[in-house]
Amino acid sequence: MKSFVALPSGYVRDTFFTKENIALAESLGRTVFFDGTEKCTADDVVASIGDSEVYITGWGSPKLDARILDAAPSLRLHVHLCGTVVPYDDPEVWRRGVRVVSGNYFFAESVAEGTIGYMLTALRDIPLYSGRLKNEKLWKKTKDMSYSLLGKTVGIVSYGTISRHLVRMLQPFRVRIKVYDIVPLPEADRMKYGLEQASLEEIFSTCDIITVHTPLFDATRHLIGKPLFELIKQDALFVNTSRGEILDQDALEDALETGRFRAVLDVYRKEPPPPEERLYSLPNVIMMPHMAGPTVDLRQYITHELLLEASGFIDRGEPLLREITAAAAEHMSRH
User: Is pTM beyond 0.85 here?
Assistant: First the structure.
């Protein structure tokens, strides 16, 4: 297997290509790493990709387009170590028969885990009580409260890969799960997990916890706005780990200012959020800097698994386990 890695040297590449993964890549065949410390450009790829059979990318790598494809006549597989491939694959990739795999499955599982972490953190008000004790040495007060995830009604907006992991992980909490999606839910999942398909209006008006997992493209931009936020019931929890522009952030801020419900936000319309955003001053919001997943320790594992999958496909003709087809890419976020 001959591979070209379009990631600059430095911390990010080192978290994917640890010493162990570099040794693995070298044992599987010839691996050429981009030798710069700044962002790898399309010119850099064209100059170096040569007869590589595998193009390996991560965040910020050049998009695989016709120009790079023309420079790489032996290319058979694009391995994207991160999630969505839409910013990294031109439709020409699939038209020319180059196959695509990504870390999307692993990213999704980690985001699902992070989502449950956010739910528990908010329900138990961990930042508040931990901060009080550690920074102010204040013990709990008689009327201080925390809440449980056990037995709650959870509403999930969109049933993609993350949501499939999430419903599995939620099972020990004995929750009731309502799901909104534009297509019917898989019957096997409905039966196994007791899923109820519901409208957005039902989810926002009846669920104790609402969590959003919708990919961002033109049709889903501002899917969630003022009419839905006005339906959220008292003391509910709203969680967004998808993309910031899935919702109307101004409408969310207006609704949160009423104090009727709480939110955990991992994504924003602009990242990082500008200092003038109202979110910073709202006491009923927990803000995280787009860290729901994957955790940094998983990057080594993801790279290990995708390198083995690439070698199996290139050298032994084995089927791809984590392939992203052109049809599947149409349902992934645009960034």
Answer: yes
